[in-house]
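thread: overnight batch results

M.L. [08:02]
morning all. the overnight job finished for the chain we discussed friday. pasting input first so we're all looking at the same thing
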Amino acid sequence: MARLLDGATPKLLTTDPPYGVSLDGSWRDGVYNALGLAEKTYMRVSGQPDADDATGSPGGSDSCSWHLRQPRAGPTARPILPCMRGNSELGTVPAQRRGFGDRQATTARLRHAWRLLAFALVASAAVVFVLEIIGEVVLGSGRVAIDYRTYIPAAQSWLDGDGFYRSWQLAGPYQLVNPAVMYPPTALVLFVPAVFLPPLGWWLVPAALTVIGLWGARPPTWRWPFIAICLLYPNTLWLVLSGNPDIWAVAFLALATRWPASSAWIVLKPTLAPLAVLGMRTRRWWLFVAALTIVSAALVLMWRDYVVVLMNARGDRATFLWVVYETPLLAIPLLVGWNGPRGRGSARTVSVSIEHPRTAPDERGRALTR
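M.L. [08:03]
and the structure it wrote out:
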């Protein structure tokens, strides 16, 4: 061992004791054994007179006996191996445990089939979603980039000194249709940088941020069908194709599953502001909110125009209920990454060690909080 460690000091020793050596499964009772009381061991335990004798199986002829062989000297020496005996070459387990094993195998097969089905649903939905986007772009649909062509020119107009909101929105009541600008002045934080990006960057940047936020996420299988439903929801395709700023909200939510403070930027769209509270318990979140507050104060003269624009709007889309149609798209990053396990190397990986399985529940709690 000294040669193996070469002066290093191990911090963790993980062992896998041989089966049948002082085996006692009763400690699981009342701890986390949801399947009921543990059965008494039917394997050989230490203390029997001849450890090299495999004829005295305590479980009878229909049993599995594991024991330790004494290592033999000389070139034929071999390590400790388990020895099984029973009615077949592979050995058998006690009759009272056969049904339990069969149920376990059946349950495992059903779970495997469910995972395959759920994966097939998500994969099919993703393929259909991508093909629909390609079809709309190739066919030159009028829906492509319709929101992008509304908000980015408005930001350019503001830079040119001509105002952010349309004159007809400020003149009096109007029907809420494109190209109406319905975002608050703070949205210029998002729109102005986009003026200097190539048009495709409006989609590629939030897509890249979404991948970064969700990288390594492994959502539970039960969420996969819901992810497929959200992808196939008609308005999801519309929001992505049109270049609606919701694609940036998706990116911020995806980042918030890894770095919760990122949710603060969702307030750039007021109807989605409730989602911003997801990270409010972090100090960085409050720093982001403070920065947005400073920007809002700098644009205070534009807030009066924003209130007028909201009051003059008419039509079905001039209500907060319109956010219902955006919910499936916004739910996707939460279904994929929120409170789910991450792959190796993720910042959300947590390791907990329990020193002894017989530790009482209250003692385990104190040990984990040290």
